[in-house]
Specification:
globular, mainly alpha, about 5% strand, 10 helices
């Protein structure tokens, strides 16, 4: 008979960031502000792209789904985190914890492939402009989008099953603010080296394959831009590519730091800080990154503002 300590617990305890009550209130206000800004910014981008016909292009089609992923990202993590700031017993059920990990992994993996699809769109627009409208058809874009979501779901199933099929015996206390893979594996009774290798292999394949694809795409883009004789053409190319490159650098930099380090170098306390960057801060920053230097987005915002003001003056 298996001992109780070697069974699947009905719930976990999320340790979060701190136990100090004064800091709990500060963190609650900060995270609530971040969540509100994230929702307003990303939903605003989605609505703007939908109502402005000038933004009905493949680039903004993918950008709208990137914003949707960022909303899902934040909504998977922040509401539970906000609740834990307010309650003394920071518990999350076994099923909800598994669901949170699955949803988080799906969003994270899908975002990798979405960024790769956006890089391919920029490659076709700048390096093969005559073929752009033929290749980047609506059917092809929907196919790439479906492939990104499918890859996200398949990878997250492998990720979640690899972690949750083992019993947990050491503790029910997760040293994190949400159910992430590495803190959960630290609670397992069994030898987790094989599982850690599986998780690292899945994450590594998704991240490295997409980053190589992105680097190849942007190497071709850079080569083409440097050969352009028109200053206006160079400026337009850089203005559309720069936000994407900034988002890629922030997302992949923090993610690679988190998941592809040797196990001996992992620090759960440090990982919490890095997790805040790519799972909470970046979804808030993406609408700003893609809007501030993008002429099309700024023009669309001006037109939307004009419509609102004219409707209010009636």
């Amino acid at each position: 008979m298996v001992e109780d300590n070697y069974t699947f617990p009905s719930e976990f305890i999320l340790l979060g960031f701190t136990n100090r009550e004064d800091l709990q209130v500060t963190c609650f206000v900060l995270f609530l502000a971040i969540y509100v800004v994230t929702l307003i910014g990303n939903l605003g981008v989605i609505i703007l792209i939908r109502i402005d016909s000038c933004l009905h292009t493949p680039m903004y089609f993918f950008l709208s789904h990137l914003s949707l992923l960022d909303v899902c990202y934040s909504s998977t993590i922040i509401p539970q985190t906000l609740l834990n700031f307010l309650v003394e017993k920071k518990v999350i059920s076994f099923v909800r914890c598994a669901t949170q990990l699955f949803s988080f992994a799906t969003c994270a993996t899908t975002e990798c492939y979405m960024l790769a699809a956006m890089a391919y769109d920029r490659y076709m627009a700048i390096c093969n402009p005559l073929l752009y409208s033929v290749v980047m058809s609506q059917r092809f874009c929907v196919g790439m989008l479906a492939g990104a979501y499918l890859a996200g779901v398949i990878s997250s199933i492998i990720h979640t099953v690899s972690i949750f099929h083992f019993p947990f015996c050491r503790s029910k206390r997760i040293n994190h603010f949400f159910c992430d893979g590495l803190p959960l594996l630290a609670l397992s009774c069994s030898d987790t080296h094989v599982n850690e290798a599986i998780v690292s292999a899945v994450v590594g394949f998704n991240m490295l394959s997409t980053i190589v694809f992105i680097l190849v795409s942007y190497s071709s883009v850079l080569s083409t831009v440097l050969r352009m004789r028109s200053a206006a053409g160079c400026h337009k190319a850089f203005s559309t590519c720069t936000p994407h490159l900034v988002s890629i650098a922030l997302y992949y930099g923090s993610s690679l730091f988190m998941y592809l380090r040797p196990g001996s170098r992992h620090s759960l306390e440090r990982d919490k800080v890095v997790s805040v960057l790519y799972s909470i801060a970046l979804p808030m920053l993406n609408p700003l990154i893609y809007s501030l230097r993008n002429t099309d987005m700024k023009n669309a915002m001006r037109k939307a503002k004009g419509r609102v003001l004219s409707s209010l003056s009636i």
